[in-house]
Specification:
Elements lengths: L6 E4 L4 H12 L7 E2 L11 H11 L3 E4 L7 H6 L1 H21 L4 E5 L28 H21 L5 E7 L1 E3 L12 H15 L3 E5 L5 E2 L1 E3 H13 L2 H7 L7 E3 L5 E2 H12 L4 E5 L8 E2 L4 H5 L8 H15 L5
This protein binds NADPH dihydro-nicotinamide-adenine-dinucleotide phosphate and the ligand C[C@H]1O[C@H](OP(=O)(O)OP(=O)(O)OC[C@H]2O[C@@H](n3cnc4c(=O)[nH]c(N)nc43)[C@H](O)[C@@H]2O)[C@@H](O)[C@@H](O)C1=O.
Amino acid sequence: MQTAPKIYVAGHRGMVGSAIVRRLLADGHPADRLVTRTHKELDLTDQAAVRAFFAAEKPDQVYLAAAKVGGIHANNVYPAEFIYDNLMMEANIVDAAYRSGVRRLLLLGSSCIYPKLAPQPMAEAALLTGTLEPTNEPYAIAKIAGIKLCESYNRQYGAQGVDYRSVMPTNLYGPGDNYHPENSHVIPALLRRFHEAKAAGAPDVTIWGSGTPRREFLYVDDMASACVHVMDLDKATYDRHTEPMLSHINVGYGDDVTILELAQAVARTVGYAGTIHTDPAKPDGTPRKLMDSSRLQSLGWSARVDLDEGLQLAYQDFLRNDNRLG
Ligand SMILES: NC(=O)C1=CN([C@@H]2O[C@H](COP(=O)(O)OP(=O)(O)OC[C@H]3O[C@@H](n4cnc5c(N)ncnc54)[C@H](OP(=O)(O)O)[C@@H]3O)[C@@H](O)[C@H]2O)C=CC1
Ligand SMILES: C[C@H]1O[C@H](OP(=O)(O)OP(=O)(O)OC[C@H]2O[C@@H](n3cnc4c(=O)[nH]c(N)nc43)[C@H](O)[C@@H]2O)[C@@H](O)[C@@H](O)C1=O
């Protein structure tokens, strides 16, 4: 019988990394063929430590789901960390993976790699065709560098079997999300705000920005299944659907909502009946970010969990964790 590949999931305690681990285990991947390290055990921005880890573990496959991540406010306030940490993690992992003989790696980028005013829905070919959204330009530049790292290692070392891929997720949410009141993304922030308003009997809740930006939201377990799907595609199939210098694959749900519509859906999920105000003094970010996910669909994958069901599941996760939010 063939031994299962040894898989390293970088960022396994994060929202997406933990969902990838769940998916792999549910698919029957043996737990003893999974390699993980916490941030405390291995700082992925430390080149020497990352090289030593890969040289010792020699995984067969790598899911790169570790990153410095946050919502619009965190991106704006910590731009140095968002560009430096993400560039370092990607460069260290991709290069150490190559040096230790890893053939297959999947890097997670983000829909913010596309120009602020890219035609909608945004196809993979929109990359590097225009100016980025200023609130997340440093993070986006690091993510674009990640795509180009994978492509460059494929181009130079492909003959040695190197096959590094990347997926660009839309905005994600679900169990294991970050519920910080300021640094989080919009769904966990609003789940918390509406929950606390309901508990306090508050008559109104204010959301950031104008409420008019449109966002596409994908439930994290769908994202994990897309990651495993892309990782496991045979090389000929992947190559047939991509190009050497346009190799990334969008992962979206297929539909978007305005932020005000999202807030109304969160209020329904939580059972909050008060008034919703907007705060135009806060940034809106990109006006619209709907992915064209036809490349992935043609590779046989589509999302399963709709926004209403996903919000219910996310709220249950919030309630389970409410006592340790502080
Ligand atoms: N969440 C979203 O809406 C979206 C996410 N993505 C991408 O998906 C991927 C996963 O994101 P998500 O799961 O949401 O993020 P999380 O913040 O939930 O998880 C990221 C993980 O990376 C770890 N990490 C961060 N810095 C380091 C470091 N220096 N050394 C070791 N580990 C580190 C974190 O550990 P610790 O917490 O201990 O620092 C954490 O476990 C990222 O690449 C992100 O850019 C893309 C689009 C949308
Ligand atoms: C995933 C993605 O995430 C970020 O980009 P973003 O799409 O702007 O993400 P966001 O979830 O923070 O906001 C979405 C919208 O929602 C509005 N909004 C309302 N009220 C709250 C609120 O309370 N919190 C937050 N965070 N936003 C709020 C907010 O004003 C904005 O219009 C980047 O990290 C980017 O790099 C990236 O990859």
